[in-house]
Amino acid sequence: xxVKNFLKDVTGASRVTKARLQAFENASAVPVAxxxxxxxxxxxxxxxxxxxxxxxxxxxxxSKTIRFSRTDGKKMPIFYAGQYVSIALPIGSPxxxxxxxxGNGPDHVPNVTGRIVCRPYSIxxxxxxxxxxxxxxxxxxxxxxxxxxxxxxxxxHGLKAGDHLLGSIGHGQFYYEPLRDSKxxxxxxxxxxxxxxxxxxxxxxxxxxxxxxxxxxxxxxxxDIVLKEELEQIDCPRVKIVHVLSGDNPxxxxxKGFLNAELIRRYAPEDASFFICGPQAMYRFLREExxxxxxxxxxxxxxxxxxxxxxxxxxxxPAEKKNDVYTLTVRRGIHEDQIPARACESLVTACERAxxxxxxxxRSGECGFCRTKVIxxxxxxxxxxxxxxxxxxxxxxxxxxxxYPLSDMTIKIPIV
Length: 416
What we know:
By secondary structure, the chain is α/β, with parallel strands linked by helices. The chain has helices at residues 3-8, 15-28, 36-44, 127-130, 150-158, 195-206, 228-232, 261-267, 280-292, 347-353, 390-394, and strands spanning 49-60, 63-70, 84-90, 116-122, 138-143, 164-171, 184-190, 212-219, 239-245, 255-256, 273-277, 300-302, 325-332, 335-342, 371-376, 379-381, 397-399, 403-405, 409-412.
């Protein structure tokens, strides 16, 4: 409502109130001087970017690469190679399709639209491509092997060219920082964890990232190497790619097995920084292997890996409660909802199922976007995703993407 119209509706207001409103109206009519610095920052680092899907192509038999451009045709926001985009997906709730299901896999794809879930995806294109003078873009590469959740299913099979999505671009700490990291980078990738390293490799080959990359890339099958063709097209002496296959691949003459200490010792240059991206099981394995090589923690970077696939397998989780369903009371200002919440799924997932928007970004307990106040109730926090500050623990705040209900709960979330 404009101030002028509002003034007509406040006949019962005091003269002081009317005077203040009139002053506000007069002030709002004064042209505001342009601030070129603010405009430049907003263009390069907007909170949200409206994007349109311009291309979808296979990246492997189980993966697809999706290209986005801005709807206004401008350059994409700035990001570092290795960072991710958080995408708002307008898809429904799998609980409405299959009562009692876990919500994972193609059989549980939601068919109810109009609800928003956010998912982070590493950007597989290079930063220089996002700032190109002609047709700037970003790309993500998504794997859908049948057990990667309904968001991957939607992106790989529900999305089409011409669709519009909102994205927040340039998040995460998983990037090369010359003041912190060695110019010699050893990248340890597993499966779809290749995506941030594909971005780094392209940026190095383009000459806009001053580093050397040795990429040890583990896959199961030679027939399902994600982004294999794109990696083969990178012709740069500062980028070395070594494929390692762990499955049964007759005729394969390259490296076999897992990314273990012996293999890393064979290829890693001295005084390198190590960047690791892949499934959770790979992280656990590599932590022990890198200890064998006496690599100091300050030279190791792990990409966040999202929510735990099976929280019941984590240390300290009360397995006897895994099938329980509790009542979650969600407060937003003066509004209050009561929704079901499964013990084996995060509080963020429970809210998304109910159509309640609880903003997330990393979904790994790191960024704090879904920081939530617990009013009452018991909960479990994944030890692998607990990125809370000490003060938050003292005052009963959680990151809702990493917290799981163990009783009826009441939480207070920000108003969106």
